[in-house]
Design brief:
It is a single chain. The chain is of the alpha/beta class and 312 residues long. The protein contains 11 helices and 10 strands. An 8-stranded mixed sheet has the order 1-2-5-6-7-8-9-10, with helices on both faces. A two-stranded parallel ribbon has the order 3-4. Helix 4 runs parallel beside helix 5, helix 5 runs parallel beside helix 6 and helix 6 crosses helix 8. The longest helix has 14 residues.
Length: 312
């Protein structure tokens, strides 16, 4: 009997409909425009996926309108079932070893100066699909030199060997999102572990001290402000340089409910705190997502010099 992928994350009877009214500062623009349509056509023509579409990112109109997108590797079916994510879950298809070439060609065709690459979780593989990340990085270097690369990777279940495969390809930014506070891990992402996130981010710095590491947190799932700050302190202790903080938005009634909306002032408080404890860059706002303004972060932190242009 074939397994049918689904977007259900938890049983319908366990779902609570969000009753908190959306505040006026949460405004999502409908995607439109010539650049958006061109980019959508490009992805379809190369049989590529983007996390922008699969995860229903609220910034897709802004980012695609500016000609930027986050490529989603290894298909559009994830082996994990997080309560916040709208990517389909189930048994994924075999890896497509020609995918790295298509992604690299799309990056070149878009003439990107900074490419963001992520993937679904591939727990069906011991290496988590790490070789695909490495192949994409190296191929972009070959055919589109000068483009900096950010990879938003899974935790690979804390595997140092899988992480090493990615790090040896030398991305400019190594990103892994913690997503929430330790108390809510089993509720929000039941197949993930806080310890795996810690190992991924701290080991990345050990493998390549020059790499910029990055992580993200969602708020509004029932955590306290102090719990958020405690996670931020942990991330700094792991050597994380860049932090993104955004409001959780419920993709559908099948997903976890929003416990509350943070105010713009609270997001600013978290940004100030993050800079105070040593983050090099903090993006904090209601609609901030992991790859939001990623190109600006690279330019501001002068990461592109890392042997990309022959300088040290």
């Amino acid at each position: 009997m074939a397994f049918t992928p689904t977007r259900d994350r938890i049983k319908p009877e366990e779902i609570q409909t969000t009753t908190v009214r959306r505040p006026e500062w949460i405004k999502v623009r409908a995607p439109a425009g010539e650049t958006y349509e061109w980019l959508q056509g490009l992805m379809r023509s190369k049989d590529l996926h983007t996390v922008c579409e699969e995860a229903m990112c609220p910034n897709i109109g802004e980012c695609w309108g500016a000609g930027t997108a986050t490529f989603l590797l290894m298909g559009d079916i994830c082996t994990r079932s997080c309560g916040f994510c709208d990517i389909k879950r189930g048994q994924p298809t075999p890896l497509d070893w020609l995918e790295p070439e298509r992604v690299a060609q799309a990056v070149k065709q878009m003439n990107l100066k900074h490419a963001v690459i992520t993937s679904v979780n591939r727990d069906d593989r011991k290496d988590g699909g790490a070789p695909i990340f490495a192949m994409v990085i190296r191929r972009i270097r070959q055919i589109h030199p000068g483009c900096s690369i950010e990879v938003l990777i899974p935790d690979f279940k804390g595997s140092l060997e899988a992480l090493r495969i990615v790090m040896e390809a030398r991305p400019e930014i190594l990103n892994h999102n913690v997503e929430t506070v330790p108390r809510l891990f089993k509720k929000v992402q039941p197949q993930d572990r806080y310890e795996w996130a810690a190992a991924t981010l701290s080991n990345a710095k050990k493998l390549d001290p020059e790499v910029l590491t990055k992580s993200g947190i969602m708020v509004g799932l029932g955590e306290t402000m102090e719990e958020v700050k405690a996670v931020m302190r942990d991330q700094r202790s792991w050597g994380v340089d860049i932090l993104t903080i955004g409001q959780y938005l419920q993709p559908s009634k099948r997903h976890l409910p929003i416990e509350r909306y943070y105010t713009p002032e609270e997001f600013q408080e978290l940004k100030r705190y993050g800079l105070e404890i040593g983050f090099k860059w903090v993006e904090s706002g209601p609609l901030v997502r992991s790859s939001y303004r990623a190109a600006e972060q690279v330019r501001a932190l002068s990461v592109v010099h890392r042997k990309l242009y022959g300088s040290s």
